[in-house]
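Bug #77: duplicate submission created two jobs. Keeping one. Sequence:
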Amino acid sequence: MFSFLSDLFRREESLPLESAQEPSEEKALTYADHQFLVLGPETAAGVSVSPETALRCAVVYACVKIISESVAQLPLHLYRRNEDDSKERARDHPLYRLLHDQPNEWTTAFEFRVDMTADLLRYGEAFAFINRNTDGEIVELIQIPTPSVTVERNALTMEPSYRVTLGDGRQVNYRRDQILHLRSMLGLSPVMQAREAIALSLAQEKHAAKLFGNGARPSGVLKHSGRLGEGSAERLRASWQGAHGGGENSGRTAILEEGMDFQALTFNSVDLQFLELRRHQVAEIARVFRVPLSLINDLERVTHANAESMGRQFLSFTLLPWLQCWEQAIARSLLTPEEQGVYFAEFLTDEFARADLAARFEAYAKAVTNGLLNPNEVRAAENRSPYDGGDEFRLPMNTEPPNANAES
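Kept job's structure:
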C-alpha cells in the first residue's frame, strides 16, 4: 500500500500514468483567478456567492448538512447476488470494509460520505482517488477537493479523464478508472444556480445585523425651531449617536436642550414586509435542495400529520436520487465488469426507522406475522442473539398454502 498524498502528489516516479505535467503559463491560476473562485461572481444584490461563501447562509448550511449527514448515517453494504436471486453481504470482498467502515487509514466511512456529498451539493461534482496495489486490488479511497479537478472529455468517444492541480502548481492526469466521480444533474452546482436567491438572503441578514447594531432602526427625528449654526448639526448628531446609538445604548433616557423636540417614527409597509421577505428566501433556497421546511426548523406551517408526510417525501424525492448516484457510481468505478453481475452496493434506508421505536417494532410484528421475516432475522436486525426455533417462518392462522384445495 502506498500513500496517495505523499507518493502520488509529491513523487513523479510513482505516478500511475505519465509523469506529472508542468502546467503551462496560460493554465496557471493567478491570484485574481483564485480570489474569483473563492469569492464567486458578484450578484445583483451586491454579494459575491461561491460554493465556499454560500455556507455562510444559514439555510444553505442547514440543507447541505441535513442531506450529507443523512446519506452518511445510512449503512452502506456490498452485497453478493446468489443463484436463487437472494442476496448476502459480501464481507469477504476487499471493497466491503472500504465502503462500510473506513475508506483509508485517516478517514471514517461517515466522514468520507459527508464530505463527498457536501462537495456534490455545493459544486455539483465530487471526486475520490482509487488507490490500487500492484495486483489491481482497491486498497484506499481518498477524496480530492473538487476545485482542484478539471474534467476533460475525449472529442471522439466523450470518455472523461481528470486533470488534478496540486498545491505546488503541478498538474497530474488520471484515467476514469482511477477516479470515483459523483455528478449531479448536468454536473451543475445547485449553489451557483441559486446564487441570486442566496445572495439576497445574505444581503437581508447583513442589513438586519447593521440595523440592530445601530439601535434596530431610526426611532425618530430631532426637531429645532430655528436654524442650527455651522458645525452644530454634526456635533448634535455625534452627541446623540454616542449617547443613544448602538444596541447597548438603545432605550436610554434622552435629554433635550434649546427647545428641541423629538418626533417618533412609525413602521411603514416596507418595514412590515422585511420579515416576510426573509421567510420567503428560506423557502426559496430550501426549494433548490428539495428539503422540507420542517427539517430545517421552519415549523410555522408544520402539523403532526404533514410532518410525517414531509419526512417520507424527503426520503423518496430528496435522498433516494443521491443514494442512487452513490450506488451506481460505485458499480461503475469500483467493480470490474465481471463483478458487476455478482456484486452491488446498497444503502439501508431502514436505518431511519430506528428513531421511532414504536413504528419499528410494529413493522417487525407485521413482517413476522405474515411470514416475511422470521424472529431470528428480527433479532439480528436489533443486534440480539438468536434463539432455538427462531428460524421458522410463521403464517397467519386464517391462511393456507397455495393450491391446498386442489391437493385435497
